[in-house]
TrEMBL record:
Reported cofactor(s): Mg(2+)
Protein family: Belongs to the glucose-1-phosphate thymidylyltransferase family.
Reactions the enzyme catalyzes: dTTP + alpha-D-glucose 1-phosphate + H(+) = dTDP-alpha-D-glucose + diphosphate
The protein's name in its UniProt record: glucose-1-phosphate thymidylyltransferase
């Protein structure tokens, strides 16, 4: 099983910081943001990781991460030349996936929980997909809202006015090899992009989408200055607590 990290986008909500660099290169306490999804891949037991980013700062990623050997990874790189949505970016990983399953992490997801057991269990599944959710209380309607029964996803609605649950869709997914077939058949949304919620609903319709709930802390660090600050504080706290042990 291979890993895919999506590290593109214009990050307009974090300007002026992102006028000069990609948001995934911004610092989270003592490391660049991109280090955290890479370390999550390592903890999950993934060895081969593809980083997908835009053309403007791709060289900075290569200069920083190089081959990936410092992480114990084999890194590959792919360019998303225009903003076409998360599903479009995932589709760029088809050759890299080589007819295998993939773990996808959006590069601004900073979280504490190890995904190793989930990855090992998903390897044994014949088909399907997994979406990782987080209980977000009133904030869930800012994301895709997941309706779940006994672990199986019944529906995912993007930013609904009346959420069916308090479980928000994080930017962490696992897909079987059919994901690229689903994307090829997908129509753009009203904003002209291939949406990840629409992609996930293909699996929901056939009854093969499972939801795993993150129990540790999770921050979508690329959405606002408040979330970026929150990620810095949580990571600093965790590092200091570890040093005391």
């Amino acid at each position: 099983m291979k890993g895919v990290i999506l590290a593109g986008g214009n990050a307009t909500r974090l300007r002026p910081l992102t006028w000069v660099t990609n948001k995934h290169l911004l610092p989270i306490y003592n490391k660049p943001m991109i280090y955290y999804p890479l370390e999550a891949m390592v903890k999950a037991g993934i060895k081969d990781v593809l980083i997908i980013t835009g053309p403007n700062h791709s060289g900075a990623f290569i200069n920083l991460l190089k081959s990936g050997k410092d992480f114990g990874l084999r890194l590959s790189y792919e360019i998303q030349e225009e903003s076409g949505g998360i599903a479009q970016a995932i589709n760029l990983a088809e050759d890299f996936a080589d007819n295998g399953k993939i773990l996808v992490i959006l590069g601004d997801n900073i979280f504490a929980q190890s995904l190793k057991d989930d990855v090992e269990n998903f390897k044994k599944e014949r088909k399907g997909a997994v979406v990782f959710g987080k209980n977000m209380a009133t904030r869930s309607k800012q994301y895709g809202v997941i309706e779940v029964k006994n672990g199986k996803v019944l529906s995912i609605e993007e930013k609904p006015e009346k959420p069916k649950s308090q479980i928000g869709q994080t930017g962490i997914y696992m897909y079987d090899e059919r994901v690229f077939d689903f994307i090829r058949k997908q129509a753009p949304s009203k904003r002209g992009e291939l949406e990840v919620t629409d992609l996930n609903n293909n699996y929901v319709k056939e009854g093969t989408m499972i939801c795993k709930i993150l129990t540790g802390w999770w921050v979508d660090a690329g959405t606002s200055f408040d979330e970026l600050l929150k990620a810095n504080i949580l990571v600093a706290k965790e590092i200091k607590e570890e040093s005391i042990k």
